[in-house]
Design brief:
By secondary structure, the chain is an alpha/beta fold. It contains 19 helices and 22 strands. Helix 7 packs across helix 8 (about 190-205) and helix 10 (about 305-315) packs antiparallel against helix 17. The chain is elongated.
């Protein structure tokens, strides 16, 4: 049962225009025919309840009918009465008389505690929601005594004294958005794993961390979402393979559930629900296209190069349990290799509108501005104007050509098909400098060690982003990889890979994307279903 209030009569409680869209998102995720937890008839919607009686009837029905699992979810305006006790606001709540017009937290807990369901879950997304954990922890609490009988799990968006967050422009609140991300991960997921996913995402964004309380073994309750599609046949064998260890699987437990959801604080945005198309993440082998950053004919670089490290960093954070095979692909052939199914995923590529018409991106992995690479003994090029009347190598078809001519029209530009050819010309003194994004040039410098150097003082052009590319049309896979990228970007592995590659603090800070940027730029070309 989804209960949400988006309109409030009291001017002290701002309206929430997008509440109905959020109700739809959760209903679609929970009742999805393949990945969903609930049958459609077990998830009803009550929008904009005016008073306590409307919620009481709905919640009483949920408590009475749930047999195996009762899941109650509240998100919205958390308001305190004169004594500091938490209440859940309704459409008709009067901020001056909270106790008589909103739902007391203890009432919800008592109702949940009286349910005959074998397992009960209470999810709260509102300001001060951590009070529910605090109050429920008291030994004299009636709710605690009742809930201890068969096991309950309480998860709140904030500690007892914190405000909950609804990022500007986002479709969901921070907590609910992270919850939806977790629920969209295919396969069994325990409540503790859901809490861990939400905690990592919110902590990585500097937001209040969710609080949890598990009674008995409730945290091990597995949320099961449907059968997995049969694996696709593996692609032909490639150049290098790395076996993957299977993570421990949780024992699936099925159950009926009634979801009760009260007022929800949301802002507008966009989201899709996976429609379970065939996914290469459900096969026994993933072939990843990797290349070198101008490392010439050093064949051993394919396994240790930057884009091989980051693509492993991404895939290691998915639910894929098979073998990852790395196939060396020329950078200029990356899109064709995806479209011809020679590889499943390629990275990293610059995210451009032209490329987004041909493939789907998961990113940004990192962002940077344009820079200049010179020979290590060059002392003449220190600022952009020093490129005047000097020969500069760039990649044919690159948008950076226009960016360079805007700031320095006097450079003599030589075009090559890839950075390897530019590097050959640079070391042979046929060109004076290479211009490209500083991230790529830093990788070339790292590979060359002492032969080249990235000019510290030259940064120009707009901040551009790189990401991972997959063939178009698989929304489910794209969303699963987006969730994995969230986890990778906030990890020690990402910091290790990029601190080695970008030793300058300014470059490193500019490179790391926010979760909002990943959400906005990932999967823009894919469509649900």
């Amino acid at each position: 049962m989804l209960i949400g209030a988006g309109a409030f009569r009291d001017p002290e409680l701002p309206d929430i225009p997008a509440v109905r869209a959020n109700l739809e998102d959760l209903r679609q995720v929970l009742t999805h025919p393949v990945h969903g937890l609930l049958a459609a008839e077990h998830c009803q919607v009550l929008a904009d309840p005016a008073d306590q009686a409307a919620v009481g009837v709905a919640l009483t029905t949920a408590v009475r009918e749930a047999e195996d699992l009762l899941l109650v979810y509240y998100c919205g305006h958390g308001v305190l009465d004169d004594t500091g006790v938490l209440h859940f606001a309704l459409t008709g709540t009067d901020a001056e008389h909270v106790g008589f017009s909103a739902i007391h937290v203890d009432l919800v807990k008592r109702m949940v505690g009286s349910a005959r369901a074998k397992a009960r879950v209470l999810l709260l997304d509102c300001c001060f929601s951590g009070q529910a954990v605090t109050v429920m922890s008291r030994r004299k609490s009636l709710a605690l005594g009742q809930l201890d009988l068969t096991g309950t799990y309480t998860l709140t968006s904030t500690p007892a004294t914190s405000l909950s967050h609804a990022p500007l422009g986002a479709r969901n609140t921070a907590f609910t958005g992270a919850l939806l991300d977790a629920l969209r991960i295919p396969g069994p997921l325990t409540l503790d794993q859901i809490h861990h996913h939400i905690d990592q995402e919110l902590a990585g964004r500097g937001l209040p961390r969710p609080q949890r309380r598990s009674v008995g073994a409730a945290g091990n309750l597995t949320v099961t979402r449907g059968p997995i599609q049969p694996p696709l046949p593996p692609l032909p064998a490639a150049t290098a393979s790395r076996p993957r260890k299977k993570p421990p699987s949780a024992k699936a437990k099925t159950g009926r559930a009634v979801l009760a959801m009260l007022p929800l604080a949301l802002l507008q945005g966009s989201t899709h629900v996976p429609q379970a198309p065939d996914s290469f993440l459900d096969t026994t082998q993933v072939v990843a296209g990797v290349w070198q950053d101008g490392a010439g004919d050093r064949s051993h670089e394919a396994d240790s190069s930057y884009n091989a490290d980051v693509i492993m960093g991404l895939l290691n954070r998915t639910d894929f349990n098979g073998v990852i095979t790395l196939r060396r692909v020329a950078r200029e052939d990356a899109i064709n290799s995806l479209r011809s199914q020679q590889v499943h995923i390629a990275g990293t590529l610059g995210i451009t509108s032209f490329r987004e018409q041909q493939v789907d991106f998961i990113g940004p992995l990192a962002s940077s501005r344009l820079g200049v690479l010179v020979r290590s003994d060059d002392t003449h090029i220190e600022k952009i104007s020093d490129l005047s009347r000097r020969t500069v190598c760039m990649i044919a078809g690159s948008t950076s050509i226009d960016d360079l001519t805007k700031v320095e029209k006097g450079a003599r530009i030589v075009l090559e098909k890839d950075f390897g050819d530019c590097r050959t010309g640079l070391l042979a003194s046929k060109v004076n400098a290479i211009v490209g994004d500083r991230l790529t040039l830093a990788g070339m410098q790292l590979a060359d060690r002492q032969d080249t150097k990235l000019v510290d003082g030259i940064r120009f052009g707009p901040r551009t982003s790189t990401g991972f590319a997959i063939a178009k049309g698989n929304h489910d896979t794209c969303q699963r990889l987006r969730t994995a990228l969230h986890n990778y970007v906030g990890s020690n592995d990402w910091r290790k890979h990029f601190s080695e590659r970008l030793p300058l603090t300014r470059d490193f800070l500019e490179a790391q994307p926010t979760l909002e940027e990943i959400n906005e730029m990932s999967c823009r070309g894919s469509t649900a279903g």
